[in-house]
Write a structure and sequence with these properties.
Length: 274
């Protein structure tokens, strides 16, 4: 099944046994490189707001965003999620998604869980189509501070307004929340660590982090700096929490646009030299 290049396609794409919601903006993959957007652990396409359209306009790239199983308008996920669910997404879904879209050149842009999935894919799959990574608030290992914040989110979901706020974005809000929350609060998740994927990255990376992110400290960025062999740019935003693209949109988007422009220039120079 091929992807229909449309902001509101007629059908969902079936990958990994689930029908997944997706949307596309800007030029199709046969006309320009493609930004592939991977949402956070409680995210969806709608929660990117108008960022896909803005990035398509500012970069000249096409943009493809999709909702993983259990999120947005996609099929519910099978619960409980396995604790390696991010690795499984990278291994079983992301490559077939690029195939279905006919993508020849891609930059993977992920937020939180989506950033981790992008990094795992970039470091574990030899896919020459992927030319760079934009990692917004990535996590490579569990931290006590982040786990505390996730437990607090669980209390807000059960007793506060979080469930109601999330319900407008997800077809099955309990599947979306519990799949994420219950994996991260499993005692075995305290030892979760996928940082070895950084060792194998051979493509440029832009890492963006809010200094006041409750779900991950700057130790996540330090881990990239200590282990990466490929070019790395970082943007640390003061007074910013877990969603730099929403809290500091101008700075975040400017960094992404500049990164993509630089990759595209290098790509064209390499083609001319060859």
């Amino acid at each position: 099944m091929a992807i229909e290049w449309s902001e509101k396609p007629a059908d969902r794409i079936t990958l990994g046994g689930s029908a997944l919601e997706y949307g596309c903006w800007g030029p199709a993959p046969d006309q320009a490189p493609t930004l592939v957007m991977l949402h956070e652990g409680l995210g969806s396409i709608a929660q990117w707001r108008d960022l896909p359209a803005r990035l398509a306009a500012a970069t000249g790239f096409g943009v493809l965003a999709y909702a993983r199983a259990g999120y947005g308008g996609s099929d519910p996920a099978t619960l409980p999620r396995p604790l390696n669910y991010m690795s499984l997404e990278a291994e079983n879904v992301l490559g077939p998604l690029l195939d279905a879209a006919g993508i020849a050149q891609a930059v993977l842009l992920g937020h939180s869980d989506g950033a981790t999935i992008a990094a795992i894919y970039g470091g574990s799959v030899s896919d020459m189509r992927v030319r760079g990574l934009v990692l917004i608030a990535p996590h490579f290992f569990a931290e006590a501070e982040g786990l505390t914040a996730i437990r607090a989110a669980g209390k807000a979901y059960r007793e506060g307004t979080l469930r109601n706020r999330l319900s407008k974005y997800h077809r099955d809000v309990d599947s979306a929340f519990n799949g994420w929350h219950d994996a991260w609060t499993d005692p075995a998740f305290e030892s979760w660590n996928v940082a070895d994927c950084i060792d194998h990255l051979r493509i440029p990376v832009l890492a963006i982090q809010g200094r006041e992110d409750p779900y991950g400290t700057l130790a996540q960025i330090s881990e990239i700096e200590a282990r990466i062999y490929s070019p790395l740019e970082t943007l640390i935003l003061e007074g910013c929490g877990h969603a730099p693209h929403l809290e500091y949109p101008e700075q975040t988007e400017a960094a992404i646009v500049e990164f993509c422009a630089r990759l595209h220039r290098l790509e064209r120079e390499e083609v001319r030299i060859a």
